[in-house]
Amino acid sequence: MRFSEQNRVTKETNCSVRLDLDGGKTEISTGVGFFDHMLNSFAVHGGFGLKIKTSGDLNVDGHHTVEDTGIVLGKAFAEALGDRSGIARFGSFYVPMDEALAFAAVDISGRPFVVFHAEFCQERIGDYDSCLTEEFFRAFAVHAGITLHGSVKYGNNAHHQTEALYKAVGHAMRIAVAPAGNGPLSTKGLL
């Protein structure tokens, strides 16, 4: 199938995601400019077709918008991957961006787990709180059913640090979802 459409409406947000693992258009609108830029970078570097429309309680702050977008995007990946048969399963990638270096490794295992190591040099990037990066990736990984390790090795510009990490995760996911073999890549015979 490798395709999913997901919607989630709460009292705080309204989010819809359309995902094609094999490519397509990218259209992102969350009301948080830097977050839109990061999601676009994730999609482009992952080779995914991705349309996201989120409206949220930005009068409070960006937390619910960012986290709920991660939840819905994670659910879209879970559905698009089905039983996870016939994919490479693992992916890892380093991305340098000027003075910053980020790394991501993923296992599309059905066992959600997140290890996140990043200290951002600035608290805000435009209208985006740097701490929301971890919130997004946690929501995404838990709802996608993946193990995700992400780290910013170094850097002194939060924009570069964050963008390198979103791109690294995009590349790692691209590698992990690539078609490979017929069944699940597991000695157990299933994931």
TrEMBL record:
<dbReference type="GO" id="GO:0005737">
    <property type="term" value="C:cytoplasm"/>
</dbReference>
<dbReference type="InterPro" id="IPR020568">
    <property type="entry name" value="Ribosomal_Su5_D2-typ_SF"/>
</dbReference>
<dbReference type="GO" id="GO:0000105">
    <property type="term" value="P:L-histidine biosynthetic process"/>
</dbReference>
<keyword id="KW-0368">Histidine biosynthesis</keyword>
<protein>
    <recommendedName>
        <fullName>Imidazoleglycerol-phosphate dehydratase</fullName>
        <ecNumber>4.2.1.19</ecNumber>
    </recommendedName>
</protein>
<dbReference type="InterPro" id="IPR000807">
    <property type="entry name" value="ImidazoleglycerolP_deHydtase"/>
</dbReference>
<comment type="similarity">
    <text>Belongs to the imidazoleglycerol-phosphate dehydratase family.</text>
</comment>
<keyword id="KW-0028">Amino-acid biosynthesis</keyword>
<dbReference type="InterPro" id="IPR038494">
    <property type="entry name" value="IGPD_sf"/>
</dbReference>
<dbReference type="GO" id="GO:0004424">
    <property type="term" value="F:imidazoleglycerol-phosphate dehydratase activity"/>
</dbReference>
<comment type="pathway">
    <text>Amino-acid biosynthesis; L-histidine biosynthesis; L-histidine from 5-phospho-alpha-D-ribose 1-diphosphate: step 6/9.</text>
</comment>
<keyword id="KW-0456">Lyase</keyword>
<dbReference type="InterPro" id="IPR020565">
    <property type="entry name" value="ImidazoleglycerP_deHydtase_CS"/>
</dbReference>
<dbReference type="Pfam" id="PF00475">
    <property type="entry name" value="IGPD"/>
</dbReference>
<keyword id="KW-0963">Cytoplasm</keyword>
